[in-house]
Specification:
By secondary structure, the chain is mainly alpha-helical. The protein has 2 domains: 124 residues, no CATH class; 179 residues, no CATH class. The protein has 15 helices and 4 strands. Helix 3 runs parallel beside helix 15, helix 8 runs antiparallel to helix 9 and helix 9 runs antiparallel to helix 13.
Length: 351
């Protein structure tokens, strides 16, 4: 299962499919992930270390029947592997195990409404990942819906939440509202719909059937949404530049005086034109999105190299201060605490 999740984010011999995949390729969580494997190996070595004594004390014929197994267990638990395990765990230090925060890629579905924070986060992540993989398909409606949803999240999130820079998101939403373009279609239209549903769930309003949640649980869900905002801002920034180069945006040009036919009266007329990457509206949007990332970079994982892509540094910003996870050793800890069954001479062939 863990391998499938990792492959979903960063498939071998292919470009990463998510911002988390970009971070993994850049080295995020590598040492802590190896330390998790080392912790699991250490627990297994603990079992091997106690196996010879358990065999010799359980039955007078057991040790002779399983002498080869006991010798292998003794050699494994006292050999070079033990030193390697301790060295790997020492190299990781207190780095948080970011790979434990990975989830299977959300599958986009046609929803009519979002009723809980888990579904809202899944929809936001699915839309972010789609825009990361398809920056050339991003339209003005995606930018407007995404920035407005992010603005609502940042305004309602807890003070100090990473990525909840509501001033920068407000500037981004205002700039995105000045861009126009052709409506999306196909999967692009579905992603715009997902973003609109997220925005509708986050924005406060009168109580509606099926939308009643505890205040504490709702705030917690919004804070989890805020953790997605830094990487969302960087994805939107790259997509804005790509879409502008492809000529997907329209802006109002400068007003020019035009004479009314058969009259001496002139009118100031502004005509629509294709937006260029260096236009003021595009520049202001990209600058506001860059400001969101800049405010979140202080929480970037410290184990990433300085030359790592900006998106890689923003993928796990919300979890940079997380406590090291103990999931890897939990199963083996429970196994060590359970008494081993008595050996059976019939098991010799299987061993």
């Amino acid at each position: 299962m863990a391998g499938e999740i990792l492959t979903g984010h960063a498939p071998p011999a292919r470009e990463p499919l998510t911002p988390e995949g970009v971070a993994i390729r850049a080295g995020a969580g590598r040492k802590a992930g190896l330390a998790d494997i080392a912790a699991l190996t250490k627990d297994m070595l603990t079992i091997d270390a106690g196996l010879p004594e358990w065999l010799s004390s359980s039955h007078r014929l057991a040790y002779g029947a399983f002498e080869t197994v006991a010798d292998e267990a003794r050699w494994t638990s006292s050999g070079y592997l033990t030193e390697v395990v301790h060295q790997v765990m020492s190299d990781a230090g207190d780095a948080p195990s970011l790979l434990h925060l990975l989830e299977p890629l959300p599958v986009p579905t046609s929803r009519r409404a979002i009723r809980d924070g888990t579904t809202a986060r899944s929809s936001l992540v699915a839309a972010r990942d789609w825009m990361h993989r398809n920056p050339g398909e991003v339209r003005a409606s995606h930018l407007a819906e995404a920035t407005q949803a992010a603005l609502a999240v940042s305004a309602l999130a807890s003070p100090g939440a990473v990525g909840a820079d509501w001033r920068s998101w407000s500037a981004a939403a205002h700039a995105a509202g000045q861009l126009h373009g052709t409506p999306p279609h196909g999967p692009a239209a579905q992603m715009a719909r997902e973003l609109d549903l997220v925005k509708g769930w986050v924005r406060p309003g009168p109580p509606r059937p099926g939308h009643l949640t505890g205040r504490g649980s709702r705030l917690e869900a919004i804070d989890k949404l805020a953790g997605v905002l830094p990487s969302l801002a960087e994805v939107l920034r790259a997509a804005t530049q790509k879409a502008a180069r492809n000529g997907h945006f329209f802006v109002l040009g400068r007003r020019e005086l035009e004479r009314v036919p058969r009259s001496l009266v002139y009118h100031a007329v502004a005509r629509w034109r294709v937006a260029q990457p260096d236009d003021e509206q595009v520049y202001r949007l990209r600058s506001a999105l860059a400001a969101v990332g800049a405010s979140a970079l202080a929480s970037a994982p410290s184990q990433l190299p300085l030359a790592a892509p900006r998106l890689a540094k923003l993928a796990f910003t919300g979890a940079a201060n997380a406590e090291p996870s103990q999931y890897a050793g939990g199963a083996m800890d429970r196994a060590v605490q359970q008494p081993l069954p008595r050996p059976n001479s019939h098991d010799r062939s299987r061993r």
